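thread: overnight batch results

M.L. [08:02]
morning all. the overnight job finished for the chain we discussed friday. pasting input first so we're all looking at the same thing
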Amino acid sequence: MNRTIIFDVCGTLFFSNTTFDFVKYYHMHKKNKLKSFFIKRLTGNLGKVMHRFLNISIRKLIISTLKGELVSDVEYLAAEFVRSNLENKKIESIFNEFTQLKKNNNVVLVSASIEPVIKSIAELYGVYFQCSELEIKNEKYTGIISKDLKGNKHLYIDSASAFYSDNLDDLACSFMVENFYFIRHKMSNRYKAFDYSENVEVINV
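M.L. [08:03]
and the structure it wrote out:
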């Protein structure tokens, strides 16, 4: 009997914030200079100040720059981005586990990243997916998130045999799965100490 195995994407399978990296990639390839400049500022020190002192979501601001963009254009470049930019950003030890497990199990990507990117990754590797979705009107994106998995993955998953993630928020899902594998990045000090249930195992990468 096949088991269900869940993998987060950003920071778990790839050293990439795929939403930020893709939107930057998209506007660069579309030669949207003003939006590219705006995103460059948001992902720099200005964005850090806005987030820390004004509690502004940089993620939502970056996603908002897709307003008015054709769904077909975004989806096409998302597939190109996945093939050309993520190959050299794989977290090898976790990706090898992912490759082996998907041979005989139902593997599902569950990510707060946006659908054009996660759908492209899922199609490339032949797995299922759940992710944040963007509102569409008249075949164009409105720049608004219509379904957001950030901090809410426990609302969108059923029980599973295992869950691999580097997100502290995802530890809320550890009570819904048999085994939770927490991916801790050696170069980060964000995860020095945290409380977790007995079924959580830490994997250092």
